[in-house]
Amino acid sequence: MEIHVEKRGGDFSTVQEAVDAVPYGEAAEIIIGEGVFREKIFCEKEDITLVGAGPDKTVIDYDDYANEEMPDGTKRGTFRSYTAFFGGKRVRVRNMAIRNSAGDGRVVGQALAVYADADVCLFEDVKMTGCQDTLFCAPLPRTERKKNGFLGPRVLTERRLTKQYYKNCTITGDVDFIFGGADAVFDNCTIICNDRMHSGAGGSANKPEKAADKKSPSLDKDQIDVTERLINGYITAGCGLKDDLGFVFRNCSIGGASGCEEGSVFLGRPWRDEARTVFLYCTMDSSVAPERFSGWGGITKDEPDCFYGEFGTRVSENALTGGKADNAGGAQLAMADLTHKNPWVKDIDAELAEVLSARADDVVRICTA
Which of 73, 96, 272, 274 could tie 58 with a disulfide, CB 3.0–4.6 Å? Predict the structure, then answer.
């Protein structure tokens, strides 16, 4: 089944109408034309593909956020704030942008662009933009830390490990902006941490009117405490189990947006004790902190049960363009100095990197089959 979505002249004029038209068990491809589609998408099908005209041409945008008060007086919460939810058995998303434009998490709280929950997920050439909690790679942790913290599409369901593959994607955010418990592989992606100290976290210029009356933001425990030192963000916050693969980033370009201070971006912190995240053969800029990873609740907090590390990291002041300017003359980029990493961060050698990459390849095969 092939369905076309266009502002004018398609089978449907909204993405949600097209998704709703697909019978659950029938494979379908939804081709989305150019334009900004201001919609909140819920997609749960057995086998569905959504294809846009390009990340700069097809945009799905919404601005729900965690601190928003619902009609019953409760807060919306993190997991009902998504712009696009993808569940079901298999989903492929290509050539589009998905953003949450609610703005600075210090004002609006968490605000998901993508909630990826299908058994098997493939995202290729997709731009995901937000501030706090841009991309959630389900499943949720087994238990919540505060009452009603998991309110949303999967609060009462059994936790199941998902397989997710992100290829040539651009993901932007600041606090824990790639998080969750999936086995997720990121190949050749561009990962950008907002400069939240100077530019209002990148998205606040697009802050919706419904958030504009919040004049006195306050931090909760999931946000950034800058009493230790200036921190722009944490790229990942994993919650998987010790036998899972966790998050694997390979050949990615990683750094802070223009203006980010040196050493102000952490590669991650563990949302739960057994979180696993590794970076292999990536290029990073000087915004990445010398400790590399932070503890949960403090930079130097001991995290002995997590598995965090990196191998083959190259340093470039132009990391977000793949270091092309630095390497224009064919010179090799310098290797990152890992001597100041937190003591609980793992030492990964070439042999272990190969083992981890082979496990990542297994996930890629499942997701691209």
Answer: 96
230 neighbors 262 (Cβ within 8 angstroms) = no
Residue 19 pLDDT greater than 50, yes or no: yes
Q: What percent of the chain has pLDDT over 70?
A: 92
- SS3 annotation, the chain: CEEEECCCCCCECCHHHHHHHCCCCCCEEEEECCEEEECCEEEEEEEEEEECCCCCCEEEEECCCCCCECCCCCECCHHHCCCEEEEEEEEEEEEEEEEECCCCHHHHCCCCCEEECCCEEEEEEEEEECCCCCEEECCCCCCCCCCCCCCCCCCCCCCCCCEEEEECCEEEECEEEEEECCEEEEECCEEEECCCCCCCCCCHHHCCHHHCCCCCCCCCCCCCCCCCCCCCEEEEEECCCCCCCCEEEECCEEEECCCCCCCCEECCCCCCCCCEEEEECCEECCCECCCCCCECCECCCCCCCCEEEEECCEECCCHHHCCCCCCCCCCCCEECCCCCCCCCCCCCCHHHHHHHHHHHHHHHHHHHC
Predicted confidence (pLDDT) at residue 117 exceeds the cutoff of 70: yes
Domain ranges for the chain: 24-368
Residue 219 scores a pLDDT above 60: no
- 24-368, what's its fold? Pectate Lyase C-like (2.160.20)
pLDDT of residue 329: 73
Tokens for 70, please give them.
Answer: 């619902």
Q: What's the confidence (pLDDT) of residue 323?
A: 77
What angle (nearest 5°) sits at the alpha carbon of residue 87, between those of residues 63 and 106?
Answer: 30
Identify the pLDDT of residue 226. 64
